[in-house]
Amino acid sequence: MICNKVAEKRKKAGMSLYDLAKKSGVAYSILYYLEHNARDIQISTAFKIARALECTIDDLFENKPA
User: Fold this and answer.
1) Do the beta carbons of residue 21 and residue 46 sit within 8 Å?
2) Contact status, residue 2 vs residue 61, Cβ threshold 8 Å
3) CA 30, CA 61: separation in Å to the nearest integer?
4) What whole-number distance in Å separates Cα of residue 6 and Cα of residue 34?
5) CA distance 35 to 48
6) Which run of H or of E encompasses 63?
7) Are 16 and 39 in contact (CB under 8 A)?
8) What average pLDDT score do residues 33-55 get?
9) What is the pLDDT of residues 2-19, one digit of tens each?
């Protein structure tokens, strides 16, 4: 199972959802749903978020055993 770590990385960077939306160009609502695992992340969105958080796409995800 892949678990997204967007919220963890965002909080570690000291950013609010609004800050991340503004910096990444990804809509606040999309970020909210991503953080609550209510939506799958698209690769283009992952690139924007990673760039805004100054990390790699790999840093945004974690493999967890099923």
Assistant:
1) no
2) yes
3) 17
4) 8
5) 15
6) strand 61-63
7) no
8) 91
9) 568 899 999 999 999 999
Question: What letter represents residue 19's amino acid?
Answer: D
Question: Residue 36 pLDDT more than 50?
Answer: yes
Mean of the per-residue pLDDT values of the chain: 88
Would you give the distance in Å from CA 2 to the centre of its chain?
A: 13
Ordered DSSP codes for 10-38: HHHTT--HHHHHHHH---HHHHHHHHTTS
d(CA 55, CA 61): 11
CA distance 50 to 25: 12
